[in-house]
Write a structure and sequence with these properties.
CATH topology of the largest domain: Rossmann fold
Largest sheet: 12 strands, mixed
Structural class: alpha/beta
Shape: globular
Distance between the termini: 14 Å
CATH class of the largest domain: Alpha Beta
Strand content: 15-25%
Number of helices: 20
Helix content: 25-40%
Length: about 550
C-alpha cells in the first residue's frame, strides 16, 4: 500500500474555484491562496443567515493510542461517502499544528484515500492562520512587558502575569524561562513560559467568535494578569484589542479545500482537545451548514475530551445541535485498553479485545447522556484479523449498539457508505434530544464534578488548595457562570494516562484553574497535563525531506 503522502501527491486536485462553483459561493466571496486553496469571506455567512441548516454529524472516538485511531480519516471518508450517495456534503475540521506534525502523531489531513488536499500545505503553514495567532499572542505579551518597563501605570504584579508567549512546535525547553535579563534597558526581569500556539486563548477566541465584531469584543475581555490588589487586568485595559483584531482579520475567515474525491472541506482553527476545547471554528461549521445538506465535523481525541467540549462549550456558544454522533474505535486501541502492551497491538488477542470493550461502552453511555443518537465506526486496519472483526461484531449486536465497519483509509468514500447509511438510519429512528450536561447556573465546582462523574466515571473531583482559592476568586468576579474546559490526558478516562480501559473507584484532581474569559470558559487543569508538549526521542521531523523538484517526503 502506498504511503499517505504518495497517495496525496498522485491525486488530481481541482482548481479551487471549481470546488466553490458547486457551492452557493459568489465570486467576490472567494479569496484564493494559489490554485488549490482559498478563504471564504465572512459575507457568505451573513448572506445565507436565513437559509436552512443541513444535518450535522459529529465524529469522536474512544481513548486513543499515541498514534491516533484515524478519526480525521473517518471524518473525511464519511463526507466522501455521503457525497457518493448523492448528498450535498461538506467537511468541517481543524487545521494541523506543527507540534504533532513534527512530533509523534503526524499531520491531521486524514490518511490513505480519505485525505484533504493539498496535504503538504495543510499540514505545514497552510494559509497562515496559526502564524497569525502566534503573532497576535506574542504582540500581546510584548505589550505587557513594555507596560511594565514604561512605568506600570496599571500596577500589574509581575509575579501574577498569566499570559504566556507561544510557539507552534513542541519545545519542552521553553516551558519555564526568565525574561528581561541584562539590565534596566532590557525590561523588567520576571519568570515567564511558553505554551504551544494551539493552546493560546486567542486560538479559542478565533474558533468561538461569531464574526469580526464578536472576536474584537472577546479579545478585549481576555484576562492577562492581576494587579498588586488582585484586580484582573484585561486586554481592554491595555488598549490593544484593535491591533490584535487587525492581525487576525484574515485568520478569522474559513479555509476552503477539497478531499481526494473533491468533496468541499472547510479546514479552520486548531485548538488541542487535551489542553483546549478541541473543535474547529464555529464560523466554519455554521458556514458549512448553510452550504450543504450533510456536514461532518470532528472533535479532538475521545468523547471524554473533544466531544464533551463540543457539546458543552462550542454547541452552547454557537447554537449548534448535532443530529448524530460517530464514535470511532479500532481493534488495536481496544486491545490496548484490554491490557496489551503498545508494542504487541498487531498480534491477535481476543481476550484483550473483549476486556477493552468497556472503554468503548463508557463513551457510548456518555453520548447517550447528551440525548444524541450515535453509531460506532470500527476503523479497520490491515492488521485486524477476521476473528477479531467477528468478535467485535458479536459484542456490538449483543449490546444492541449500532455500528458499522469503516474502510475509508483503503477505499475512500466507498468504504464509508455502510457507515453513512447507518447514521441516516439512526437519525430517522432516534430523534436527537440534545442537551448539555450541566446548567450554566451551576457553580464551577458543580460543573467539574458533573463532568468527572458523568463523562469520566469518577467518584468526584478533588481540588488542591490553589484550585480552591481560584474557585472562590473566580466566583467573586462572576466567572462561575461560564462553562468549564477540562485539560486532561487523552489516553485515559481518568487523569492518570496509565489507567486504561474503564477505571473505577477514582477521583479527578484539579490542581489549578485558569480564566479564559475572552474565549468564554474556565480551564481546569488536571493531573500533570502540560500546555507545552515535548518532542519524542525520534521526532517525525527526522524523516522529512524535500527533493530538488520541491516534492516533499516523510509527512504522514
Amino acid at each position: 500500500m502506498k504511503s499517505d503522502i504518495e497517495i496525496a501527491s498522485e491525486a488530481y486536485i481541482k482548481p479551487i474555484q471549481d470546488i466553490a462553483a458547486g457551492l452557493n459561493i459568489e465570486e467576490e466571496e472567494l479569496e484564493q491562496y494559489g490554485r488549490h486553496k482559498a478563504k471564504l469571506s465572512l459575507n457568505v455567512l451573513k448572506r445565507l443567515k436565513d437559509a436552512p441548516d443541513g444535518r450535522l454529524i459529529l465524529v469522536t472516538a474512544i481513548n486513543p493510542t499515541k498514534a491516533g485511531e484515524g478519526k480525521t480519516t473517518v471524518t473525511v471518508g464519511l463526507g466522501d461517502a455521503f457525497a457518493s450517495l448523492g448528498k450535498k456534503a461538506m467537511i468541517a475540521m481543524r487545521e494541523p499544528s506543527l507540534g504533532p506534525v513534527m512530533g509523534i502523531k503526524g499531520g491531521a489531513a486524514g490518511g490513505g484515500y480519505s485525505q484533504v488536499l493539498p496535504m503538504t500545505d495543510i499540514n505545514l503553514h497552510f494559509n497562515g492562520d496559526i502564524h497569525a495567532i502566534t503573532a497576535a499572542n506574542n504582540t500581546l505579551a510584548a505589550i505587557i512587558d513594555n507596560h511594565l518597563h514604561q512605568g506600570n501605570a496599571l500596577r500589574i504584579d509581575p509575579r501574577r502575569i498569566i499570559w504566556k508567549r507561544v510557539v507552534d512546535i513542541n519545545d519542552r525547553a521553553l516551558r519555564n524561562v526568565v525574561v528581561g535579563l541584562g539590565g534596566p534597558a532590557q525590561g523588567v526581569p520576571r519568570e515567564d513560559g511558553f505554551d504551544i500556539t494551539v493552546a493560546s486563548e486567542i486560538m479559542a477566541v478565533v474558533c468561538l467568535s461569531q464574526d469580526l465584531e464578536d472576536m474584537k469584543k472577546r479579545l478585549s475581555e481576555m484576562v492577562v494578569a492581576w494587579t498588586y490588589d488582585e484586580v484582573p487586568v484585561t486586554v481592554r485595559d491595555l488598549g490593544v484589542e484593535g491591533a490584535l483584531s487587525l492581525l487576525l482579520k484574515d485568520a478569522l475567515k474559513p479555509n476552503l479545500v477539497q478531499t481526494i474525491a473533491h468533496t468541499p472541506a472547510l479546514v479552520h482553527g486548531g485548538p488541542f482537545a487535551n489542553i483546549a476545547h478541541g473543535c474547529n471554528s464555529a464560523i466554519a461549521t455554521r458556514t458549512a451548514l448553510k452550504l450543504a445538506d450533510y456536514v461532518v465535523t470532528e472533535a479532538g481525541f475521545g468523547a471524554d475530551l473533544g466531544a464533551e467540549k463540543f457539546l458543552n462549550i462550542k454547541a452552547r456558544a454557537s447554537g449548534l445541535s448535532p443530529d448524530a454522533v460517530v464514535i470511532v474505535a479500532t481493534v488495536r486501541a481496544l486491545k490496548m485498553h484490554g491490557g496489551v502492551d503498545k508494542d504487541n497491538l498487531q498480534a491477535e488477542d481476543i481476550g484483550a479485545l473483549k476486556d477493552g470493550m468497556q472503554n468503548l461502552k463508557k463513551h457510548t453511555e456518555t453520548i447517550r447522556s447528551f440525548g444524541l443518537p450515535f453509531v460506532v465506526a470500527l476503523n479497520r486496519f490491515v492488521t485486524d484479523t477476521d476473528l477479531e472483526l467477528e468478535v467485535f461484531k458479536e459484542i456490538m449486536e449483543q449490546e444492541q449498539i449500532p455500528f458499522a465497519l469503516s474502510e475509508v483509509w483503503e477505499k475512500g468514500g466507498i468504504g464509508g457508505v455502510s457507515l453513512a447509511e447507518a447514521i441516516e438510519e439512526q437519525i430517522e429512528k432516534s430523534e436527537s434530544h440534545f442537551s448539555p450536561l450541566y446548567d450554566l447556573a451551576h457553580s464551577l465546582e458543580e460543573k467539574i464534578t458533573i463532568i468527572a462523574r458523568k463523562v469520566y466515571g469518577a467518584e468526584g473531583a478533588e481540588f488542591t488548595p490553589q484550585a480552591r482559592k481560584k474557585l472562590q476568586l473566580f466566583a467573586e468576579h462572576g466567572w462561575d457562570c461560564l462553562p468549564v474546559c477540562m485539560a486532561k490526558t487523552q489516553y485515559s478516562l481518568s487523569d492518570n494516562p496509565a489507567a486504561l480501559g474503564r477505571p473505577e473507584n477514582f477521583t479527578i484532581t484539579i490542581r489549578d484553574l485558569k480564566p479564559s474569559i475572552g474565549a468564554g470558559f474556565i480551564v481546569a487543569l488536571t493531573g500533570d497535563i502540560m500546555t507545552m508538549p515535548g518532542l519524542p526521542k525520534h521526532p517525525a521531523a527526522l524523516n522529512m525531506d524535500i527533493d530538488e523538484n520541491g516534492r516533499a517526503s516523510g509527512l504522514f
